[in-house]
Amino acid sequence: PRRILSGIQASGALHLGNYLGALKRFVEMQNAGDPCYVFVADMHAITVWQDPAKLTAQTREIAAAYLAAGLDPSKSVIFPQSAVPAHAELAWIFNCTARLGWLDRMTQFKEKSGKHKERSSVGLYTYPVLQAADILLYKATGVPVGEDQKQHLELTRDIAQKFNNDFGVPNFFPQPEPMIQGPATRVMSLRDGTAKMSKSDPSDLSRINLTDDAETIANKIKKAKSDMDVLPDTVEGLEGRPEAKNLVAIYAALADMSREAVLAEFGGQGFGGFKPKLAELAVSSMAPVTSEMRRLINDPAEIDRVLAKGAEQARETAQPVVDEVKKIVGFWQG
Ligand code: TYM
């Protein structure tokens, strides 16, 4: 079977893009019967400074979101990245496999470091190498992510291949497949259909947070940017209409429908008719997740039990792999 692995950074509130592009897909894959390793990327989070108390809270919050969305600790291994030291060990070895030229091409570093490259942490630069270690440590073969992670997955494949070649161990690390599928691989801002929905957008109206209540969700959809035209009958008709395209994609992902099916229902209608239906759907599909999340956050003991058990299982899977890597590299075994 495929071994699925993915993670979400513990760096602030989750939004609808994380939910539709990643979280909801993890649950689908778990329920399809593939073994899933799903972690909270707290080591990635500290590539930009995090308040320590908040980091702990955000780690529990992501774990709560995993459980609330339907990840089941008896089927999936749910753990904090930092609780498995082998991530850091393998990341160091991969720092010596990856080439500067490869990392220089990473667009996310360019975006995140902005004009102040020299003041960015070294961790932010080498972030995708740690991501490769996360994936290859479990010899994962399927990695469900949003479109923004595509380049990091390509780097992971390059690192796997170079490691295998450098040490003459063909097929030691598999080539993991990026699983970037479905209608919501790139959810856009509700205020600007050409910008990605993201945690760092200063406008809270640009995104739906997993912590928003029903009224807030409905209000944000009502205020979402749209255009004056009616919805088209075909997906092609959405071209050049980024806001319409985004709202239709969100509807499709929430309803588990294709965009074609959404347009078959709403084609010819204006946003005055479509938006209330979208708001209703968003509220009814998110409310159970957000309310369960709130309940879990108020009971951290339950979350901590899940994370502790997951960490133990993850260490059991990871340890033999990192042990073998150290042997391959020639580290003293004793
Ligand atoms: P992060 O925490 O930024 O985002 C978590 C997941 O959400 C997806 N995503 C989106 N999908 C659709 N539309 C959007 N607007 C949107 N915004 C975010 C992301 O693509 C991601 O799948 N580097 C990763 C975390 C990570 C990881 C890994 C992922 C660390 N190690 C190993 C997979 C495997 C990240 O920062 O995701």
Automatic annotation (TrEMBL):
Signal recorded as keyword: no
UniProt motif 'HIGH' region: location: 10-18
CDD domains per record: TrpRS_core
GO terms of molecular function: ligase activity
Primary location class: cytoplasm
Function statement: Catalyzes the attachment of tryptophan to tRNA(Trp).
Subunit structure: Homodimer.
Protein family: Belongs to the class-I aminoacyl-tRNA synthetase family.
This protein's name: Tryptophan--tRNA ligase
Gene it is expressed from: trpS
